[in-house]
Structures are given as C-alpha cells and as structure tokens.
Amino acid sequence: MKLVVDKLLLASQLPRRTIALVLAGGRGSRLMQLTENRAKPAVYFGGKFRIIDFALSNCINSGIRRIGVITQYRPHSLIRHLQRGWSFLRGEQNEFVDLMPAGQQMEEGLWYRGTADSVSQNMGILRSYQPDYILVLAGDHIYKMDYSQLLLDHAEKKSACTVACVEVPREDASGFGVVAVDENRKITGFLEKPENPPSMPGNPNMTLASMGVYVFNADYLYELLAEDAEDATSAHDFGKDIIPKVVGLGEAMAHYFSMSCVPPSSLVRPYWRDVGTVDAFWSSNLDLTSNMPELNLYDEDWPIWTYQEQEPPAKFVPDPHGMDGVISNTMVSGGCIICGSKISNTVLFSKVRVNPFCNVDQSVVLPDVEIGQGSRIKKAIIDRGCRIPEGTVIGEDHELDAQRFYRTPNGVVLVTDEMLAKHYNFEHVPRVE
C-alpha cells in the first residue's frame, strides 16, 4: 500500500519539476496551401480547436503549468491564438506559457537551424527556471496523453532520456522514425523511415514509432545541446542528431504510448495521429463525425482547452420553399447558419453559412466560409474565409477540380480563397490569420 501511495505522490510532484517545450516553428509543407499563412500547429482541427491545443491541453491536464512554445514560421496566428486562449495561467503561482521566437537569444539573430538548435538558443531562459526535467513536445500531433505517467516512468527507470513511442503495424511503420528496443525497453536503434522496420519484443506484427515526445534530465540535455552547437556537421535536430547520439551511448529508454494514453489502453485503442498531409488532415477530421469516434472530444475528465470567439448557437432554418434540410453525422460549431441544405459526414467550423439547396458531404469547412446557393461539395477541405459562388460543384469532376484547386491523389480537394479568386477572376484580399 505504501508503495502505491509513494508512486502516486511522485507522479503528482514530477510535473511541478518539469518545463515543457512545445516545438511549434515548423511550416508543415505537406499540408500545402493550408500552411501558406499559418504554421502547422496553428491549423484548425476538430470544429473549434487548433492542432497545438492538444499538446498544450495534455500539459495542463497532466499538471505541467510551465510551458514554452518555440515559434518560427509565420507565427502571427499562432501567437494571437496563444495570447487569447492560453493566458489564463497564473504568473504569481509560477505558471506560464512563454513564447520563444527565433533569434531572440543570439547576437547574430539567427533563425533556428533545427529543433535542437531552437532549444539551445533558449538555454539561458531554461536555466533560469531551474527545472529537473525537460519535456520536449512536437506541437503538430493529435492525441491525449498523461505526461505525468511518462515522467514517472522516466524517473523510475532512472533514465537520462526517454522517448515516447506509439505502437503501429509493421506494414505502416516505414513512414515514421522507428526505434528498436530490447526486452527492458532500452532503445538499441533509431531508424528514420526504414524499409524493413524492426518488430517489438514478443510482437512480430507491431513496431514502435517515435511520437516526437522526449523527456530529458535537464543537466543532461544542456550538455548534449552544448556539444551539438559546436558540431559543424550536425543538422541540430532532435530526430536526426540528438536522439541517435543518446541511443548510441546506450542512454535512451522507450515509453510505450499505451502506458499513458487517455483514456487508458485497457478501455480503448490508443489514438495518435500525425495530420501532416492533406489526406491525413481530412480523414482525421472526418473520423470525428462517426458514431463512436476513437478520439473522444466529449471527455470532461480530460478536456481540450482552446480559444473560441463568443458566437451564438448554430441555427438550422428551412429553404425559401419551406423545406427543412437534412443533417447527419456532422459536427456544427457556434455561429453557423444552415438553410435548407443536406449536410452529411462533415465538420463545420464556426461562422459557416450554407445557403439553400446545397449538398455538402465528407468535407471539412473551416471558419467564416459561405457556401453559395445550389452548390454541391464532396470530399473537400474549404479553407477559412472562402466564399463559394452559387452553383459551384466540387468533388465530382476530377480533372476540373485539379485545374481549379489542389487535388490529392486520393481525391481530396483543397480550396482556398486565393484559388477561387484566380479561377473566378475576382480580387483576392489576403486575410490576416
């Protein structure tokens, strides 16, 4: 009994001795035009959230309230979102979300050369907080994880570095950074997108993919980064340089996502998604419209925090002929007005206006979009602020879609305001994200 109590006490104390660093400076170029004006972590997701909200919410729900967000590429919308939605932490209680933009700590004003360099350039700030542990997080994945359990595993294993890993089928693992482990979870190899991924001990059909989530003893990380900064051959990146070096020294342990996922893996299959491509972004959003989605956004015990404008409830009204629309398997956010249209298997973000006689299916419609009367839209992503002209048809003629918009090989059509302006020959006014 005492052992259980001591373990619970340690798990509650470790988050207070930890600084979390969210790496949020990447562009995410595989998301194409979705990241032309915003960083990947600032991309909208799930009807009302931004991608970064998941890592930040995991921190808050895990008891970690000292957080640094490292920014670089087109940070305006991300910074504004953090200022508006994440300013509730109490500075007088040593709680904060600190912004760490590129160049602020170097006399040369250098951009961050890699993920490790982005942490290295902020070393003075980190040391001033005097953490015992540093939790490094990718800011562009969708998952729910109790970081206190990760920290507990790190401390109990007396590890210098712990890499969080998600179990994936071997046939799907070649697109990830993959780790090989022994029976004690010690990492024996780190392979980037291998053709023949190593299997997990005792489970030949599964392998371990790095989640981009690392725990370091603070002093140990400082030494690694100081050495890396002096290495002219280094890419100054965690995945390419720091983690392989730690693995080579035999000082890295693996932590299985199933040990700390929320809800516990005994209840549901662990959910983790890299929404780094247009197809993955589309499918992950549409997953939420199923009857029992794997990602539960309705869990009051592990809420996803965010900033959202104060909008009126969504409204559904009949068309001019008095006929009601049909809505099925659809998430509808505040401020939306749906007028006598058919909407199915779709995510509507805030302030979307759907005019009469439309048919929208299998689509992700970002905020402040208006869909003109009589439009038919299928398997599309409509970017924020688009005005779809009356009678527009998207998702039926593949060749025409490819001429007007961006179409993936799997048939998902991405529509932006700039594309519409070019095709319909009206003035494009860039939006401030």
What can you see in these coordinates?
- There is one protein chain.
- This protein is of the alpha/beta class.
- It has eleven helices and 27 strands.
- The longest helix has 12 residues, at 2-13.
- The mean pLDDT is 91.
Which stretches of 5+ consecutive residues score pLDDT under 50?
none
Roughly how many Å apart are the termini?
53 Å
Total beta-strand segments: 27
Q: What composes the largest sheet?
A: 9 strands, mixed
Number of helices: 11
CA-based shape:
globular
Domain Nucleotidyl transferase: 20-290
Function: Involved in the biosynthesis of ADP-glucose, a building block required for the elongation reactions to produce glycogen. Catalyzes the reaction between ATP and alpha-D-glucose 1-phosphate (G1P) to produce pyrophosphate and ADP-Glc.
Site (Could play a key role in the communication between the regulatory and the substrate sites): 72, 111
Family: Belongs to the bacterial/plant glucose-1-phosphate adenylyltransferase family.
Characteristic key phrases:
nine-stranded mixed sheet, single chain, 433 residues, 11 helices, 27 strands, alpha/beta
